[in-house]
Amino acid sequence: MKFSTVATAAASLLATASAHGGVGVYTIGTTAYQGWQPYNSASGQSSIQRQYASFNPLMIPDLTTVNIRCNNAGILGTGLNAAVAAGATIKTKWTQWTHRPAAIMIYMAKCPSAGCNNWDGAGKVWFKIAHQGLVSGTQNAGKWAGDQITDTLEWVVTIPASLAAGEYLIRHELLALHQANNPQFYPECAQLTVSGSGTASPPSSALVSFPGAYSASDPGVNFNIDSDAAKTATTYPIPGPAVWNGSGSTSPTDPEPSVAPPAAPTTLVTSAVAAPTTPPVTCTPVAKFGQCGGKTYSGCTVCATGSTCKANGDYYSQCV
Fold first, then answer.
1. Is 266 exposed, middle or buried (0-12, 13-18, 19+ CB in 10 A)?
2. Residues 196 and 310 in one domain
3. pTM for this one?
4. Residue 279 host element (H or E)
5. How many domains does the chain have?
6. What is the per-residue pLDDT across 12-42, written as a single tens digit (0 to 9) for each?
7. Residue 138 lies in a domain
């Protein structure tokens, strides 16, 4: 009985670990940019996404550390930016995700004139361009934004059409709320070069820093999904600032997620290039039933059209 109990607990821990994930691919138009592969060697990896070590969550003690910014201790870029026009969409695809409920928050930060690659994102420079938490029903039993990612692994966000051109960091963050008063934060950052004729920048009142944007006492952080209040409440106080609406003000409302996907990707960017003028490097999508991931895997992680990369333990993922 004791062995059985230990085995059951170990299986439970493994299932919990496999439920985590991170953004694996960013798609802009017909170009797909490979995300960081945390369980592979950092040697030789180049991505628009900042390096991070694992799919493990950040918890309340991490809110006061630099790790909460981009899920690392201030590691800089690898030399790759993604080109995107103001007003265009970015579709993100997570490697895996099963946590319910969850909120999503998306931030940007304008990089210095020298660019993003050697800048760590410090300071009161981050502004929120989208967020969504509880969509309908009660906190305890309703529909949440994270359900869409659990079901499809995808989310689409629009870059503010009025945003001034330049280099920016974009920060996608999932906030898993399944543990009472102990939420799990999953942030990742990537580098963008925004083009267009826009001239708008968010006001100082819309800017926050990481760490600093969240506190353990925030109602959306100090939150118990199983409380009596959660069984009747029909709104959820999303942590952080209001969404910047592209003008001189912020919007307190929760925008609906964009559901119109960009065109199917034709190019996968997997190594460092001088964006946006140098042609991207490509890899051939993996055929159905082929390996597409795992701790020791170093090949292409995008599946051919019609199949999706699914994890089967830490060391093997397959296109199915």
1. exposed
2. no
3. 0.79
4. none
5. 2
6. 334 434 568 999 999 999 999 999 999 999 9
7. yes
